[in-house]
Amino acid sequence: MVYYSSKGARMASEIVHVSGHIIDSLILPKILDEIMDLNGSFEILDLAIGKRKADTSTARLKVSAASPNRLASILKRLARLGAVPVTQKDAALVPACKPGVFPPGFYSTTNLPTAIRRGGRWLPVERIEMDCGIVVDRRGGRAACTPMVRVRRGQLVVCGTEGIRVTPLARSRTQDVFSFMTSAVSSEKPKAQLIAGVAEAMRQMRRRRRKILVVAGPALIHTGGGPFLERLIEAGFVQALFGGNGLATHDIESALFGTSLGVDLARGVSTQDGHDHHMRAINAIRDLGGIRQAVRRRILKRGVMHACVTRRVPFVLAGSVRDDGPLPDVLTDVMEAQEAMRRQVQGVGLALMISSTLHAIATGNLLPATVKTVCVDINPAVVTKLSDRGTFQGIGIVSDAASFLRELCAALRLSRR
């Protein structure tokens, strides 16, 4: 719609609608901030505020801008907050001209629940994750989130922002550790209450048959947290494990030599020639053909990786250029590792990211915003960075890995072996 302001300037406008817990989740204020930050203006035409805790609110706004292009930019930002034009059109579909290349103007996804309008009806976008495109099959029955590298020539890709509906996360209505914003990270927060809340969330996931994913770095082993993670795996509280060559290598080193990076884990002192233990551990596993073979031949009798094999917990070890060896089980092709991780995150309801930065960020990019995430690290900067991924579904805990896992096992009442 184009109209003229009182000063005679030509303006473009659109009426948008938003509903949900838009007041207590601060969605409406964010919408108004976005409009003003992009030099637009607004008029609230209707506002109905829910009176009870479970009630939703609705608003209808007239959004205006100096040009159609400026208005389109504003509407694109508002769509990510759940505000959609009252007059809806079908999503624009453009065929990809090259494999691995989206058409110009493709819609770049968020990790929020998303639907597209096709043939007058809304299709939920399957396997949603951030920074991808949306591919619609030619029969129009399904829409799927698709990484750029996987798009094929001729596939129909959603372009622009029309016909797209994003559902922002509302503040949890239940009283749990995920029911408040946790972007402010502090080492002085009451960890016992947070960890008890995480334990209860893990029990809920198991009751609902949702998967629990653990993403861990080698510091988990260095700090003595390995036996506690073993306990979680053996008790059925872990359904997938992500890590790198370092996590598996030092876990196996601790199982074979009792050390991690050459430090005796029982006494906390360096051992003679211990600096080469991790290389000897890698060499032993390479000689046997892999971690699973080492467990079957009873060379590897304990540890996190041993627990994964014996409890049939799938693991993905993604490699890097700095890896020693690496272990035969490490995926050195990063795109292959990404696809393996993408398969395993399906069905995950809770992710524990412990003493890992790069693998945790990579995993966070693959997870829908609805997955509850817990980031644990001794460095507050890491916790803040990962907690900032999502406002309401993530919490951060400043702690070393071993202390966190010890308290978590206690909260879950997992006895010592």
Shape: elongated
Report the major sheet. Answer: 7 strands, mixed
Give the % helix.
Answer: 25-40%
Q: List how many beta strands DSSP finds.
A: 20
Assess the beta-strand content as a share of residues: 15-25%
Total number of helices: 13
Terminal CA distance: 70 Å
CATH topology of the largest domain: Rossmann fold
Radius of gyration: 25 Å
CATH architecture tag of the largest domain: 3-Layer(aba) Sandwich
Q: What is the SS-derived class?
A: alpha/beta
The number of domains is 3
Poorly predicted regions are 180-184
CATH superfamily of the largest domain: putative lor/sdh protein like domains
Average pLDDT across residues?
Answer: 88
Instruction: Please give the CATH class of the largest domain.
Output: Alpha Beta
Keywords:
7-stranded mixed beta sheet; 3 domains; Alpha-Beta Plaits; conserved putative lor/sdh protein from methanococcus maripaludis s2 fold; single chain; Rossmann fold; alpha/beta; 417 residues; elongated
What does this protein look like?
Mean pLDDT is 88; it is low at 180-184. Helix 3 (191-207) packs across helix 13 (401-411), helix 5 (226-234) packs parallel to helix 9 and helix 6 (245-257) crosses helix 7. The chain folds into three domains: 1-87, 2-Layer Sandwich (Alpha-Beta Plaits), CATH 3.30.70; 88-169, conserved putative lor/sdh protein from methanococcus maripaludis s2 fold; 191-411, 3-Layer(aba) Sandwich (Rossmann fold), CATH 3.40.50.10690. The chain is of the alpha/beta class and 417 residues long. The protein contains 13 helices and 20 strands.
